[in-house]
Design goal:
Blueprint lengths: L1 E7 L2 H8 L2 H8 L3 E7 L12 E2 L9 E2 L1 H15 L3 E11 L2 H13 L16 E5 L8 H6 L3 E4 L9 H12 L10 H5 L20 E2 L2 E2 L9 H19 L1 H7 L4
Parallel strand pairs: 1-2, 1-6, 5-6, 5-7
Antiparallel strand pairs: 3-4, 8-9
Helix pairs in contact: 4-6, 8-9
This protein binds S-adenosylmethionine.
């Protein structure tokens, strides 16, 4: 259903994560296909150089445009056009709404089969470019008309974690990935929480280090349990993330 092409200088790290948990299941079920490409393979010199010193001076190295552009062109020749996204702290902040938008577009798109290339311009094909060092030569992003996404207001050493965050947030919303499709709806930022935070969860034992599971959860009264969870979710959202409450009820 979805193809994620990930351009990175650390393909082993990315592959390892894509193999486990929810993403491993989504791949095994054919819901997600992943195509991890080392853009160092597109360097033209014998030292396999992908970076150089910045024009204008200053610390650090900058990723050269040629290997990136040629890697993207190669991927698209072999797997069809993608929605191209660069991981960068100066990008649009990625959030659950955005993940839902990606997933909805993928669901609406015809399913991916093993007969690549995909339909041109397919929203089911997303290319994620992972930076390193000081980031990309600006022209690589301009030439290929990249969108830019950030996963938060902090700076990581590379875009791999950011790309995996995005892939996982989207993949778990695709039908068939999670064992119980209600999980995604009932999570934080989902419809059940009115876009706010999740309620607390408890499992066995009933008493742990002197702390008891709230009685209501043992009552078997589903209406009461539902009301308790909703109230807990609201209280937690107001206390920890009042900004989410404001967004939902701007005048409240
Ligand atoms: N010079 C860049 C700046 O100040 O915005 C930081 C570059 S960072 C050290 C190296 C790479 O990590 C970036 O090119 C990007 O791919 C990735 N990265 C770091 N923080 C990120 C974030 N919050 N969201 C997405 N990608 C991030």
């Amino acid at each position: 259903m979805a193809l994620f092409s990930i351009l990175t200088l650390f393909p082993d790290v990315v592959e390892a994560y894509l193999d486990v948990g929810v993403l491993g299941i989504a791949r095994a079920r054919g819901i997600v296909q992943a195509n991890v490409v080392d853009f160092r393979d597109f360097s033209r010199d014998r030292h396999r150089t992908v970076d150089d010193r910045p024009f204008g001076g200053g610390p650090g190295m900058v990723l050269k445009p040629e290997p990136i552009v040629e890697a993207v062109e190669w991927i698209e020749q072999h797997h069809g056009p993608h929605r191209r996204i660069a991981m960068t702290p100066d990008g649009q902040p990625f959030d659950q709404k955005m993940a839902e938008g990606f997933a909805a577009a993928m669901i609406a798109d015809p399913p991916v089969t093993t007969d690549l290339p995909l339909r041109p311009g397919s929203p089911s094909s997303v290319l994620l470019l992972c930076g390193r060092y000081e980031g990309f030569d600006e022209r690589a992003l301009q030439v290929l008309d990249f969108e830019r996404l950030s996963i938060g207001d902090y700076v990581l050493a590379g875009g791999e974690l950011a790309a995996l965050v995005i892939v996982e947030a989207i993949a778990r919303l695709l039908p068939g990935t999670l064992g119980d499709s209600r999980s995604a709806i009932e999570d934080s930022f989902g419809d059940s929480a009115d876009g706010g935070l999740d309620h607390p969860h408890f499992t066995r034992p009933r008493v742990f280090r002197g702390i008891e599971v709230p009685d209501v959860l043992l009552s078997g009264d589903h209406a009461r349990i539902h009301d308790w969870r909703k109230q807990q979710s609201e209280t937690r959202t107001k206390a920890v993330r009042p900004d989410l409450t404001q967004r939902l009820h701007p005048k409240g």
